[in-house]
């Protein structure tokens, strides 16, 4: 979950619906600050798992940033091996797992480390993105649901954002995607395709498109739901 959402997300409502909430982030202090601000710091069923690199690749990004003279073959091998398997050990799997506006932050980490003109930037962005989508599904229990919520474009590049009615957002998003006006790596139709093609996924679909207003900037946001196959279906795949 992105840092700002720890302050506005309604954890009290979630606690009325779920037995436990597990929050995973690199910035552990931001999580605790958000929980404290909502007066829930003494709650026993919110679990914080901090200092976790969800990219799985921060050491490799630093190295790749310094290795601009790699041959094309060396770079491809490097990117292929760059992402470490993520073992959270946080009592997973879960009935529901949600990635809330974290994907663009992971991608921004890559851009910040490599720069916009790095020759292997987009290879690494796709690697990070697909790793995150696979990670999302892997944390879900058989038959459970994963939800990806991500910002796709802001009012910086689409200045009419505030004037569009939300019932027209889906059509507007299709237009923006067709015109390549969206953040790197978050094309919703491509992401839906990647999730649908995962062998453990039963179904995936774009659920909703809406607007989040953060004052100086407005974001178009979409949600995708993916249901994991049941245990019997997963066993059938392995057989």
Number of helices: 10
Q: Write down the secondary-structure element order.
A: HHEHEHHEHHEHHEEH
Shape: globular
Low-pLDDT stretches: none
Number of strands: 6
Q: Tell me the number of structural domains.
A: 1
Q: How large, in whole angstroms, is the Cα Rg? A: 19 Å
Give the N-terminus to C-terminus distance in angstroms. Answer: 36 Å
The largest sheet is:
4 strands, mixed
Chain-averaged pLDDT = 86
Which strand order does the major sheet show? 3-4-6-5
Structural class: alpha/beta
Q: Which oligomerization state do the chains in this entry correspond to?
A: single chain
Helix content: 40-55%
Strand content: 15-25%
